[in-house]
Amino acid sequence: MRLGVFFWHDSPNDQITFAGIENGFQAAGRAVLFVERRANGDRARAQLALTELRAAGCRLLFAMGTQAALLAQEHVPEIPLVFTAVANPVASGITAAWTGSGTSVAGASYWIGPATLVPVFRLAVPGLQRLGMLRSETSGVVSRAELEAMRAWIRTTPGTALQVVEAIAQNDDDVERAVAALLQQGVQAIWIPNDFTIYQNLHLVTKQATAARVPLVATALAAARNDAILGATVDFELHGRRTAALALRILDGEEPGALPVDTMHGFRILVNVDAARRAGIEVPLSLLVLADELIAEETTDDRPR
Asked: Whole-model pTM?
């Protein structure tokens, strides 16, 4: 049996999630052939890849990430679609409701809501009231959903005392200008969301943020493992295994559109002590105590929650 796997770009989230999917099928004792196609962020290449997956006769298609899911819906709607490594599928327009799509689409989300993120961010930056978000025009589908959800939560949650300031980089070459715009507005921390353009250019962000002694906090795994002092993320390997279980239900006859979006029930706190040291920022003890993983001097402390 052939199952298609479509990548829009090579993000760490997608790669780890796919490993979880493979492990999930292996654990279930189901022999399948994964037919992988990668677009490398190019729309023409994406259309060709999806055409090839259609021609391969795949029973089901895994869309790795938000943009991959949107493109697969557009170009191969006749193949049952399972999206994964997606933050907010409703805000991104992949499905109309968390309770199910009513179509041939099902999937899994790693969404961490603002009610969880804000207290964690404030552990890293005590007294945080002015948070900058850096995102891009070129790959900002997910980061826009993160921002909109955060602002909606702030509007409807009394006593939040938090303002989110946004700066948009038009492309890779515009990242430094966008960082400078946030720093000029007096932000106390810069949020690195799930935005490929931003975390691929993290070194440009870090250079200015470190000079201004402004810490980076992240929901992007790649940023958490590099220059952000704090990352709030999920276990993407487990996320992939849960996606595999969802796909198996569809392969065994359940209707994709009747299945609610699978959601993770926990999150992980990564504290990058090395990044904090490089930035001249002291990590609060309260955050160190709660960390699931500490990144310090090339060693990690991986603690089960």
From this structure: 0.85
